[in-house]
Write a structure and sequence with these properties.
Elements lengths: L8 E3 L8 H11 L22 H12 L5 H16 L4 H21 L8 E3 L1
Helix pairs in contact: 3-4
């Protein structure tokens, strides 16, 4: 451990997916085609109107019943375990890394793809 300095190394094991339209949009961004759009740099005002009605009702029902999806619970557990990681070294640290990566795998199996986490290394 580096004198109490927090370090974290992640391994990117997510599947990288690229489609034709995304490549066209990325190229246009690089070439500056989106630089002068009205409202650029201003926050989006999506509110709840961007959801379709069944999805909106689902989230309202979950919130009203104080239900937290399992992947949110796992994310909180992972954050807690990562904090504990900074206090251990050697064999105990390797054990903690394995435990965190096991939780990350469970998290990635249940969360939306865009929120997946990378595994960590020592």
């Amino acid at each position: 451990m580096n004198g109490g300095k927090k370090e974290e190394f992640e391994v990117d094991e997510r599947i990288h997916y690229s489609d034709h339209m995304s490549e066209i949009i990325k190229k246009a961004e690089r070439e500056g085609h989106f630089d002068d759009l009205p409202g650029k740099g201003k926050p989006l005002r999506l509110g709840q109107d961007y959801m379709n009605p069944p999805e909106k009702q689902l989230y309202k029902t979950l919130k009203d019943n104080h239900f937290v999806p399992r992947w949110v619970e796992l994310a909180n557990e992972i954050d807690h375990l990562k904090e504990e990681l900074y206090a251990v070294e050697g064999k105990e640290r390797r054990k903690k890394v394995k435990e965190i990566n096991k939780q990350i795998k469970a998290y990635n199996d249940t969360c939306p793809p865009s929120l997946q986490k990378n595994k960590i290394t020592e």
